Amino acid sequence: MNALADADPETLRISIDTKATVNVGEYSRGGQSRGTKPVKALDHDMCSKEKLVPGGILEPITGRSFLFFGTSYKTSDFIVDGLHLWWEERKQELCGLKQLVINMDNGPECSGRRTQFLFRLTEFADMTGLCIRLIYYPPYHSKYNSIERYWAGLEKSWNGYLLDTVDTVVKRAGNFFWKGLRTVTRLLDAAYEKGIKVSGNEKLELEQRLQRSAILHWWDIAIHPKTVNL
């Protein structure tokens, strides 16, 4: 599917993932930085008051990267809201796109069983008119997801700095280059509630919108936009 997507001019493949929460403060992250003196930092991060949840979208072929930081919880709605921000940033350049292939691992917030995530993606498909194809990596194989290499590079670049304010985190991430391209960053300052799910008749209606692979039922899912009859 990845090879087919990359060869199709009307399809774009993106890689999505979230990372561990970043504690905002003068904490040591075990990195290195250039300077005449070592950076002074706290060696414990207990009782951190401010935290940021990083989410990322990478376009593997071009290397374009988009990061969105949340101030609340890592949820299905957080991930899809980040996807909406990315689309607003890129939609003019992608006006001829017909299909979006999304690579991701089978994490609890975005798995092929997470009804709220799938429901939000049906809304995204209807809004954009795009066919959405979810291609999951199997358990313990998330390291093959392209954005994992991007995360490793980002962490290496910012671990030597003090991420002591929200603004510093966002700006430091925005100064990171991947394949010669600067990262685009956005802040999602919204409250997200855990445990939201679709049930009952709404769940049955949702399943009718999903075209699941007969072989990889949970790991290969297509969502087609609703057609409008004029």
Please give the alpha-carbon distance between the first and last residues.
33 Å
CATH homology superfamily: Ribonuclease H-like superfamily/Ribonuclease H
Number of helices: 6
Helix % is: 25-40%
The gyration radius over C-alpha positions equals 19 Å
Major sheet: 9 strands, mixed
Q: Please tell me the CATH architecture by its name.
A: 2-Layer Sandwich
Domain count: the total is 1
Low-confidence stretches: none
Q: How many β-strand runs?
A: 11
Describe the structure.
The chain has 230 residues and is an alpha/beta fold. The chain is built from six helices and eleven strands. Strands 1, 2, 3, 4, 5, 6, 9, 10 and 11 form a nine-stranded mixed β-sheet that branches. The longest helix is centred in the middle third of the chain and has 15 residues, at 76-90.
Question: What's the short version?
Answer:
The chain is of the alpha/beta class and 230 residues long. Helix content is 29%, strand content 24%.
Describe how the helices and strands are arranged.
Blueprint: H1 2-7, E1 11-18, E2 22-24, E3 50-59, E4 64-70, H2 76-90, E5 99-104, H3 115-128, E6 131-136, H4 147-158, H5 166-174, E7 177-178, E8 181-182, E9 184-188, H6 200-209, E10 210-212, E11 220-223
Parallel strand pairs: 1-5, 4-9, 5-6
Antiparallel strand pairs: 1-3, 2-3, 3-4, 6-11, 7-8, 10-11
Helix pairs in contact: 2-3
